[in-house]
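Appendix B: complex inputs.
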Amino acid sequence: MSTHSVQAKQRAGEYVQSISDLLIDISHQIWEQPELAFEERRAHDLLCRTLSEVGLETEPHAYGLETAFQASAGTEGPEIAVICEYDALPGIGHACGHNVIAAAGLGAGLAAASMAAELGGRVRILGTPAEEGGGGKVFMLREGAFEGLDAAMMIHPADHNLPTLTTLAVHCLKVHYTGVASHAAAAPHLGRNALDAAVLGYMNVAALRQHIRSDERVHGVFLNAGEAPNIVPMAASAHWFVRAATTQQLEELKARVVDCLAAGALAAGCVMDIEWLDPAYSEMSDNDRLLSRYQENAELLGRPFADPEVVGYVMGSTDMGNVSQVLPTIHPLIAVAPEGVSIHTPEFAAFACSDAGDRAVIDGATALAATVIDCWLDPL
Ligand SMILES: [Zn+2]
Ligand SMILES: [Zn+2]
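Resulting structure:
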């Protein structure tokens, strides 16, 4: 590392420290009022207001999404995106800690923006809604939000500092079965039972699970299972997630799942309709060079990566995977909770607004800002 870059990163760190109260306050405000996918209006407004008050060119409601935004700084040189997520989960609030992602992304973006002109780089701060199922980044990708970028990065809360989320590609579906209603006692032979079709489909998938790869997942719930026991259910539906290590592997598994669900319909004499939900999430493909830069910067803050072989992988799916298929991207995990406290639990939600969560905001912002500077001074 050159002295120039060490000094620039140090100043970025000092900048983040100087706005630490603001960043932590924003993290807490978003945490206190959790908003679901595509409904993150308060978080969107709060982040946009903060960006424009600092004087950044800010575009609210960007790329055709009400709760997406973009802000940018710099006029020449490599252009790097830092990502803010801010959606919560139904029932358990910020149990994925996206309030920490938002505040860390904001802090990194502001620190980088304050030095962009001087260092000859550009930064784009992207507010990406609906990571938890809505796929905001995929829609933003289609609308050009990531065009012209040299790299994109974000941090994600976890119970360890880890290089990445071990991701699976995922495609979700809703299956609707239609049968024939009839009186369940007076004329059962005239009925065709849509609930039977759904249950048989479910059981077929349960049998399939014994014969899929260890990194594949299929899991579902019933959405509609009939109206009353004395009416043969004429409609039933289920919601399934199908996951595999790669998009290609996923296509093979999807075909097998459809066969299972269709066999249920065939057995029960019902009609099946499958609705694939847009968008599918791709697997994450981390850029090694970018990741090693982040790793070095995080280590300087006392956050060396744990070995996932030892502490365990954090599995999941993210729309950042789709971004990573298009440009150099990283999605490192930052510890906000003690070992063993899993994301998507009420316990994790509490840690996302704790001292540890606040430290992750500041360290995450600092490490991301330093990594942006690396990309400016020594393009990937
Ligand atoms: Zn999550
Ligand atoms: Zn998350």
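The chain has a mean pLDDT of 97.
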